[in-house]
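We append the chain.
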Amino acid sequence: MKIGLLGGSFNPIHNSHLRIINDILKKSLVDEVWLIPCKKHAFNKELASAKDRIAMIKSAIKNIPDAKICRIELKSKGKNYTIDTIIKLKKRYKDELFFVAGSDILCEIKKWRNYKRLLREIEFIVLKRKNYKIKNVKGMRIKAIINANNNISSTGIRGRIKKGKSIKNLVPKDVEKFIKERGLYEK
């Protein structure tokens, strides 16, 4: 089986995430997409609880049978790096794994822990983002490039909530309802 690994804070998951998942599946690049919520944000941004983020993800992907949640990073001890996650998953599963990454982060990949090994370990599905060229990184194998032009971001959604603005059509209705009921991102 071919599995696309989509990591992120999902703080909150939004409609662009769902479009990406559906695009990858519709193009038959993989059989399943696994969403891997991080335990801690790489830049120490405050996150909703893992329990709340998992609940929002479950709700958002309930109608996408080939999208699953992988809790490997949430269960990890200490600081977690992408290379560690990939190695653990490759040991645990014999499936063909692909790392889904935006062209915006490719500019930074050489700063990642053990990035050369990461490039050897896994092939990439690259999401072409507006204003970010696909950077040719020596040793990187790219299975596919998907146009991911969007202007939705979790940061923008949280900002709108703090200002009391609507997030309608930015997140699934059930996620919007959950955020309101829990009072998430209001402060």
In short: The chain has one domain: 2-151. Residues 2-151 form a domain with the Rossmann fold fold (CATH 3.40.50.620). The radius of gyration is 16 Å. The chain has seven helices and six strands.
